[in-house]
């Protein structure tokens, strides 16, 4: 039980730091604007965390359902990326587990599912950043990398 309380407190603390960090017009660190869908998923995620802290199982389950629904929309938009589809299915399974644990009133199980959800998000965004970087290198090679001068 002490370990679960520590995990919840650490998660709340880290989310507080993220929430208090300055936002440049909802932009990610690479300067690209955060999509509407991603912004909504982040809001639902923060609401799940709030639910964990307050033991609001109904709120946790509802916000997990909303995240799962949004993942369906994004899955349709990004259906051409098979690696993303793998990440998407993992996200959906974890959302289902979060819903199951919330419906059972199992705070420890819901906390564990939320931590898995967080790891899933980090892995997916790492993949997307890597895919975006590879795509931009394919489209327009940097002259400094090719040794070709624009002079």
Automatic annotation (TrEMBL):
The answer to whether the entry has keyword Amino-acid biosynthesis is no
Q: Which terms does the UniProt entry file under GO BP?
A: electron transport chain
Q: Which GO terms describe its molecular function?
A: electron transfer activity; heme binding; iron ion binding
Give the signal peptide, or none: 1-19
- Which branch of life, at top level? Bacteria
Q: Which of UniProt's keywords are assigned here?
A: Signal
Q: Is Amino-acid biosynthesis set as a keyword in this record? A: no
- This protein is called what? Cytochrome C
């Amino acid at each position: 039980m002490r370990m679960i309380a520590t995990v919840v407190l650490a998660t709340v603390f880290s989310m507080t730091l993220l929430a208090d960090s300055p936002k440049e017009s909802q932009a990610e660190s690479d300067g690209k604007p955060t999509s509407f869908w991603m912004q909504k998923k982040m809001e639902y995620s923060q609401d799940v965390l709030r639910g964990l802290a307050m033991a609001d199982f109904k709120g946790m389950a509802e916000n997990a359902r909303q995240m799962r629904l949004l993942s369906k929309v994004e899955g349709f938009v990004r259906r051409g990326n098979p690696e993303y589809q793998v990440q998407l299915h993992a996200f959906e399974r974890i959302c289902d587990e979060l819903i199951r644990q919330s419906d059972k009133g199992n705070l420890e199980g819901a906390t564990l599912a939320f931590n898995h959800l967080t790891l899933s998000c980090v892995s997916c965004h790492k993949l997307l950043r890597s895919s975006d970087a590879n795509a931009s290198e394919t489209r327009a090679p940097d002259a400094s990398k090719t040794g070709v001068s624009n002079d």
